[in-house]
Amino acid sequence: MSNVKLAIIYYSSTGTNYQLAQMAAEGAKAAGAEVKIVKVQELAPESVIAGNPAWKAHVDATQDVPVVTHDDLTWADAIIFSIPTRFGNMPAQMKQFLDTTGGLWFQGKLANKVVSSMTSAQNPHGGQEQTILSLYTTMHHWGAIVATPGYTDPSIFAAGGNPYGTSVTVDQDGNMVENVREAVMHQAKRTVTVAEWVKKGLQG
């Protein structure tokens, strides 16, 4: 059986969710997956981005990261999303991309994808859980298989204990408060493992 193909799709304004995506890629590769990291298209006006030095610096630093396409979705056996919270919901940039997937959904090309999600916010109760759940609502419509970390590894407790997906608090200087590296890597490995089971079952 060929290796699980994992697409890590992220949106990040100042870099936190890009870092989470890189951690997830490391965990997934360790589990034997073929991984690609892609970003959703930025929608914010250049004038707004230019007014925030951290945002501008991150956009410039990641200009070579490919923008996600529908081909990435059809290629992938599994998908990990990494998104910041926006008032307890996913960012408009991610929502806009998901809203373009109706054709793939209609053709049944999104069914049985194994999916998982991570997020970040500036406060411990800044909407992390609700943000992940809002994204999973779309995944249920896809017919995807949601692979949450639950409490399947001690690293989840050390990272703050979010069973829906790893979430991290970011301080005023843009630094992650909790040490979530092991939790992210576990979540990625678990997602790949579940995708292996599904892939094997579909081919059997």
From TrEMBL:
Family: Belongs to the WrbA family.
Keyword terms, alphabetized: Oxidoreductase
Ranges that cross the membrane: none
InterPro entries with a match to the protein in the record: Flavodoxin/NO_synth, Flavoprotein-like_sf, Flavoprotein_WrbA-like, FMN_Rdtase-like_dom
PANTHER family named among the record's database cross-references: FLAVODOXIN-RELATED PROTEIN WRBA-RELATED, FLAVOPROTEIN-LIKE PROTEIN YCP4-RELATED
Domain Flavodoxin-like positions: 6-192
Top EC category: oxidoreductase
Record GO terms (molecular function): NAD(P)H dehydrogenase (quinone) activity
EC number(s) per entry: 1.6.5.2
Entry protein name: NAD(P)H:quinone oxidoreductase
NCBIfam families the record matches: flav_wrbA (TIGR01755), PRK03767.1 (NF002999)
Lineage top rank: taxon: Bacteria
